[in-house]
Amino acid sequence: MRSRTQVAIIGAGPAGLLLSQLLHTQGIDCVVLERQTQAHVEGRIRAGVLEPGTVALLEQAGVAGRLRREGLPHHGFRLALDGASFRVDMQDLTGRAVTVYGQTEVTHDLIAAHQARGAALVFQAADVALHDIAGDTPFVTYSQDGTAHRVDCDYIVGCDGYHGPSRASIPPDVLRVFERVYPFGWLGLLADVPPCDEELIYSNHPRGFALASMRSPTRSRYYVQVPLSEKLEDWPDERLWDELALRLGPDAAANMVRGPSIEKSIVPLRSFVAEPMRHGRLFLAGDAAHIVPPTGAKGLNLAASDVGLLAEGLAAYYREHNASGLEQYSARALSRVWMAERFSWWFTGLTHRFPDMDDFARRMQVAELNYIRASDHARRVLAENYVGLPMAYALG
Ligand code: FAS
Ligand code: PHB
């Protein structure tokens, strides 16, 4: 079967769904092709913190109703060192705050908006392939229920994550990749118990990093740093709760409510960037182009800022035949991506225990955390990166 659209989007994660919704508000025709089932996509447990810029894009996309009702404004977070914590007041230091609202909910709201308007959102699209991306007649092929499909389009946007086909469609002599793989992962737990604190706690402890987060006043999300060799079966709930109590410190432990995990998983950590984020008629957005260690809560937010820039460029192109936004997309997006990569790499280095860390390196972490505790200036630097740098910083 053959069809035509203006923009073919590969991947129905936050990047692909938000881009499709933003293009719809601009009257631009698009189709989203997703390999997995809707249930699989909606079942993913991932990010939890939205920057104000991401909230603004979700408002612009017309999908922020539930977010406004159920999202938790967070004006600060806590940093703990060896069990003693202090607060970083983002609102006081930057005039801005973040919103705690799970990526699972964002995805659900975006899919519901697509289905309410009968949008072209195709699940279980198998064998998606990109064609003629360097030419003027790009198209995408895929199969569904044994039927072969071809979608002719003006542009293709790869929102297909780290393992998708889009980045792989860019010739190796064009693509340049940058990577750091961290010597540990995050073991995450989701449980229907109240959080141990009103705000997030990032903890640097001699036994390793821990994070106390949440999804709602009755649903908690916790993480501990673990060696990459760890197996999930070696971490029964009780062992994980004991480790969290040790690493988060006595105050958090005293308020910690234990309960059965409803999800438990280990994710590896990497910093990754692919340049450029455009080749011919193909654009990359979100995890298809970059990965950050989740420490800085940047992954989902970077995906949103990518598609916000791209939607702006596509709207100018179709409305005013002005291609400048599209021509500048890769450079503008990468400028912001690298600033978030730096912050996420720095924050991971500050809070995690590296296997090759000697006493001097540990003293450096302690000294930097004590400096941040003592200095408004140092806390302001941390706060403005965490809450999300203004777009103007990146556009230079
Ligand atoms: P996604 O990976 O979310 O979406 C890509 C989509 O493309 C998927 O639905 C996939 O099925 C689809 N796809 C792939 N190949 C395809 C093909 N061949 N054909 C069609 N479709 C295809 N970020 C944070 O800020 N905080 C966190 O705590 C955090 N935790 C994470 C935990 C895990 C396990 C992972 C993997 C990531 C985590 N992230 C976190 C980062 C995460 O939130 C991403 O930044 C975010 O999902 C990026 O969204 P997308 O770019 O849409 O990519
Ligand atoms: C989460 O709630 O999943 C979360 C929050 C903040 C982070 C990473 C993950 O930095």
Automatic annotation (TrEMBL):
Keywords for the protein's UniProt record, in alphabetical order: FAD, Flavoprotein, Oxidoreductase
Pfam families: FAD_binding_3
Ranges for domain FAD-binding: 4-344
GO MF entries: 4-hydroxybenzoate 3-monooxygenase activity
E.C. code: 1.14.13.2
InterPro entries linked: FAD-bd (IPR002938), FAD/NAD-bd_sf (IPR036188), HB_mOase (IPR012733), RIFMO-like (IPR050641)
Coiled coil: none
Presence of keyword Isomerase: no
Uppermost EC category: oxidoreductase
Record-given protein name: 4-hydroxybenzoate 3-monooxygenase
Lineage, opening ranks: Bacteria, Pseudomonadati, Pseudomonadota, Alphaproteobacteria, Acetobacterales
The encoding gene: pobA
